[in-house]
Amino acid sequence: MSKPLYYISPTDPVDGETRQYNDLWRRKCEMQRLLNFWTEPLFKPSGAH
Fold first, then answer.
1. How far is the C-alpha of 39 from the C-alpha of 25, rounded, in Å?
2. Complete DSSP assignment for 2-45
3. Residue 13, φ and ψ in degrees, nearest 5
4. Is the pLDDT of residue 1 over 60?
5. Could you tell me if 10 and 19 are in contact, meaning their C-beta atoms sit under 8 angstroms apart?
6. What is the C-alpha to C-alpha distance for residues 47 and 21, in angstroms, rounded to an integer?
7. CA atoms of 46 and 49, how far apart (whole Å)
8. What is the distance between the alpha carbons of residues 41 and 14, in angstroms, rounded to a whole number?
9. Which residues pair with 8 in a beta bridge?
10. Which residues make Cβ contacts (< 8 Å) with residue 22, sequence separation at least 6?
11. What does the alpha-carbon distance between residue 12 and residue 41 come to, in Å, rounded to a whole number?
12. pTM of the predicted structure, to 2 decimals
């Protein structure tokens, strides 16, 4: 799946890693994953892409 056009990219103050978030897009992708019985998670446990 391609990345969304708009997302936020905060930097984690603890480890300095930049993460990208778009919650509505993430929810859409996760719903598609569940409906298609895919077992591999699409996102990191933090919710980042």
1. 19
2. PPPS--B-PBPTTT--B--B-HHHHHHHHHHHHHTT--S-SS-T
3. -70, -20
4. no
5. yes
6. 7
7. 9
8. 24
9. 21
10. 3, 4, 6, 7, 8, 49
11. 22
12. 0.57
> If you search the block for the tokens 């984690």, which residue do you land on?
12
C-alpha span between 11 and 1 (Å, rounded) = 23
Q: How many residues does the chain have?
A: 49
- Number of other residues whose CB lies within 10 A of the CB of residue 17: 11
CA distance 12 to 7: 16
Give pLDDT tens digits for 8-30: 788 989 999 888 788 888 888 88
